[in-house]
Here is the input.
Amino acid sequence: MVDQELQDKVRVRLEDFYGANRVVAQPKLPGETSVYPDFGVFRNSDQTEPFFLVECSSFRTAHRRKRDFEEIVNAVSETPAPYGALIGSDVEFVFSITDSAYRTYGDFPTQENKDPVRRQIQSGQECESLLERTIAARQDLKGTERHDEAGEEILYSLQLVLEERHADISSPDTLTERQIKDLQHQVEERHEAYTIEGTLQPTIVKVVKQIFSGYTVRKTPDENLHPLFNIVTDSQLGDEYSTPVSIASEIVRLAQPKKGEIVLDPAAGHSTLLTHATAKGASGIGIEINPAVASLATAFVDIFDRDIEIRVGNFFVEEIVSNLSETVETVVVDPPFGARIQDKSIPYFDRDRPVSSECAFLAKSLSLLPDGGSITIAVPASFLHKERSKWLRRTIQDKFRIDSIIQVIDGPLYRSTSIDVAFLTVTKTSVESDHPVQYSLIEKPDYPDKALTEAVTEIVSGTAPTIPQKELNETFNVKLLTEERRILEQLNQQFDIITRLGEVAEIHVGNQPKELLKEAGDDTYQYLRIRDVSDGTTSNSIEYLPKQQAKIIADDHCLLLAALGEKLTTHIPSDSVAPARHWIVLEFNSYEEALVYEAFFQSSYGEEQLEAMRSGTNIPRLNVRDVRELHVPNFDDTTLSKRAQSIKEHQEEIADLEQERKQLRQQREHLTENLDDLLRGGESDE
Here is the structure.
């Protein structure tokens, strides 16, 4: 909405409420102010005594909101008008200045000075505006502090304000320390996890009480309150204790908790997931190991008025999860990424070594589910294929039904990590091997949040593509599996026999750099790095490895395949070398065989398979186990010899053309250098 359209609508509302003879656009006000609002409402028709000043704002940016608010506050402060308002298309901040805070009103003020009935917060933008005003007023009182500390204090204060309203206690704007302690005691009786050191400052509680005085929070639609989750992180992308709202809502849509069910979040954080999961009548249990985070979660539980129990403790301690298997029907969890957990009680795991946190949370949650129960979890995308997660993938494949997989590729969703993620929904029930697993691939999205919403909508509606569960054997990487299926169909149309690369070549990983030398000798091999076969390499960068330390030697029977980088790099050494650790070494029976398979990798058949196998966000890499499973044609000796000869002739033709191009380039340079002679009419005229 453009500003003029907004101003026209606001003027009509003001005139309907106060009468046209009392409303003036851009009034000249008494006093010393040089700032004039868009509208002034006067106490009388003579328009001499201002009563209510109104500024319209687009609210496009935080800077614009702050500037417009400062202008209307200045106008109210410097005139006799007791009320002001900043109004946008879906924001309406009506206030009066009291001390350093601003009392808000649910509607336009009347001259009788009666507080109108509270109204709902009508948009997320309006909620953001209220929080901005609260933070600004708090800074006036306390000065600059960490944003997360300010957010926690505001949330705890709002929790007490709502507690006071719920108890129907009539009190002035300022609560005494005794009253605050009494309210905190009431919260403690409901929430064992609620612990707050000391007492909230009465002045801060007063700020929150005044600014939210015109609004009924618990009757406000949930989506309009979502900015509250961002106040402790200063980011809509979340932090380690707060799942972004955009992700939490989609995880819950995948889980589809029903009214009356009990939903568990074993890594509850600020309860973002449970707040969404219990919106339609489910109950929640949240387990959080950090007491301070668990305590703050109770504020969200009360503000959103949810039936959620927050427990403080370690999910992997039996006392914390006792009786959960008898009550929990659905699990939603966004576990911490990157941690390692070593606990002998982790189900389905029989080795004495640490496991990744996502595996630990997933395995423990699966063991607690009753028959028919389900879990929806966010995991690093590497969980779908990495070797260390294979034990759990096999368990899920054998004992559970996989309902859906969403795989994000090169589209980070979290601020706290740049790694790609995946979302799984798994149900504890027996399943036929051809059970169709719904999946969605999100590849390099311009708008990751929007792409995730579209993917979830496809799955929830049952319109997403499927893959038989039996095909999710060693890997859940649906990108790789679907690409393999497509390419295998093409290969079968073009070649007589198709096999796995590991059947036609010995496959190794290159050498670790131990004692590298700068000088070559009879007892050394060149330590061949990927950069050594790239353009622009100088001889000064070449290093050598002692022969006794070289475990893998490559010669012209070997094809080297770069395991790092987006670019496909292959190389057949002319002499024996010690390949570096980032080469995958494919050892064939002859140079001709290496030559043919190098051509295969450089074709669309090989290149597309390798592209699907690459993982990692910052530096894409190939896993040697995946490369062994790559589909390739299997040639007989006669066919292999013919194809090798054709490739050699092709390479010779390319070399001839390159030589011809080099000569033409030299001729062009020579002619360019002789332009001066042509202009002078020199000997070049001949």
Notes: The radius of gyration is 34 Å. The longest helix spans residues 637-673.
